[in-house]
Specification:
By secondary structure, the protein is of the alpha/beta class. Helix content is about 50%, strand content about 20%. The longest helix has 16 residues, at about 130-145. The radius of gyration is 16 Å and the shape is globular.
């Protein structure tokens, strides 16, 4: 099988970065808010690349993909994922999305169902229009603008299960919070939120 390669493809006003790994039937993995194709999917991709071509696009709003600074739409993000799959030579593929990626994957599957063999949605949301979603995403936006430490802590609480955080232990959780505070591109993340 081939090794992971980094590629780009132009779509709309974006130059979309993506990773391709393995050989065989296609599997497209779509990351969540604040991540990218590598940070959210490296471990999964390495376990699944045998017998599959794994494609991991990096959506606008994440480092590595460049685009205009306008508002992001699900349809624009869907087009980015489809362009990466097309560029990698995948006519049909299995599709998995995490968080924001789950919303993108669901929209993609509804838009071009003939392209999607199987769909897996992880930690997704159907709409950002209900009271709870507006409360959560409003808090995310506020903390991104005003308190990166609190934002990183909230993302740990909303992005990982209680059992996972307990297993990490306090020292590793604090280290992960520090990495988030220092490493996140907060302006880009705000666009995705």
């Amino acid at each position: 099988g081939r090794h992971v390669t980094s590629r780009t493809v132009a779509v709309g006003d974006a130059i979309v970065a993506y990773e391709v790994d393995g050989d065989g039937p296609g599997l497209v993995l779509v990351h969540g808010t604040g991540g990218d194709g590598r940070t959210h999917w490296d471990l999964v991709a390495s376990a699944l690349r045998t017998g599959r071509t794994v494609v991991r696009p990096t959506l606008s709003g994440s480092p590595g993909t460049t685009a205009g600074g306008g508002p992001l739409t699900l349809d624009a993000l869907v087009a980015q994922v489809v362009a990466a799959a097309d560029d990698a030579g995948l006519a049909a593929f299995d599709l998995a999305g995490y968080s924001l990626g789950a919303a993108v994957a669901a929209r993609l599957a509804a838009s071009v169902p003939e392209r999607v063999r199987r769909l897996v949605l992880v930690a997704g949301f159907a709409s950002a229009d209900d009271a709870r979603a507006r409360l959560e995403f409003g808090l995310w936006r506020s903390l991104i603008r005003t308190d990166h430490d609190a934002a990183a802590r909230l993302f740990m609480l909303t992005g990982f299960s209680p059992a996972f955080l307990v297993a990490m232990g306090e020292e590793q959780v604090e280290a992960a919070v520090r990495v988030g505070v220092e490493g996140d591109d907060w302006d880009r993340m705000l666009r995705q939120v």
